[in-house]
Design goal:
This is O-acetyl-ADP-ribose deacetylase. Pfam families: Macro (PF01661). InterPro entries: Macro_dom, Macro_dom-like. This protein is α/β, with parallel strands linked by helices and 168 residues long. It has one domain: Leucine Aminopeptidase, subunit E, domain 1, CATH 3.40.220. Helices cover 39% and strands 18% of the residues. The protein has five helices and six strands, in the order ββααββαβαβα. A six-stranded mixed β-sheet has the order 1-6-5-2-4-3, sandwiched between helices. β5, α4 and β6 form a beta-alpha-beta unit. The longest helix is centred in the middle third of the chain and has 19 residues. It is globular and about 40 Å long.
Length: 168
């Protein structure tokens, strides 16, 4: 049975086998969580990302964690939807991000994964709706991952994720 928890903190310092990067299609780094992960993992992450790019929205691809502190061994990159009102497939694409990340985690043999709040930053997905989609998708996707950490960088995100998890 998979345990899902909400954690406030730095995704690059988690006690997990893999972390998820809310990436752009180029997988070469950007702002927000993407920039923080690239900074912490070092320049080899951008090189590895470029070698497997592009990554389509809703898909996921993995690279080594490079300079990230152990036990993090893998970075799973996923490209979420840009919010354009919700009627252009954004919810389905976001759900696909979470499903594909779990599939990739299973392929890697990862038993613990930390997820950021995908698409809720510069991509503009409403945080409450994104949190509900994340929890519903993670709970309904069959996986061998034993522990999922939903990461919150700040208190408002922690509250939103905690409420979504409690509501089921």
């Amino acid at each position: 049975m998979t345990v899902i928890e909400v954690v406030q903190g730095d995704i690059t310092r988690q006690d997990t086998d893999a972390i998820v990067n809310a990436a752009n299609e180029s997988l070469r780094g950007g702002g927000g969580v993407d920039g923080a992960i690239h900074w912490a993992a070092g320049p080899r992450l951008a090189e590895a990302g470029a070698a497997i790019a592009p990554c389509a929205r809703g898909d996921a691809k993995a690279t080594p964690g490079f300079d990230l502190p152990p036990p993090i061994r893998h970075v799973i990159h996923t490209v979420g939807p840009v919010w354009k009102g919700g009627d252009r497939g954004e919810p389905e694409i976001l759900a696909s991000c979470y499903r594909r990340c779990l599939e990739v985690a299973d392929e890697l043999g990862a038993r613990s994964v930390a997820f950021p709040a995908i698409s809720t930053g510069i991509f503009g997905f409403p945080p409450e709706r994104a949190a509900r989609i994340a929890v519903k998708t993670l709970r309904s996707t069959r996986t061998d991952v034993e522990r999922i950490s939903l990461m919150a960088f700040d208190s408002p995100t922690h509250r939103v994720l905690t409420a979504a998890l409690a509501a089921g």
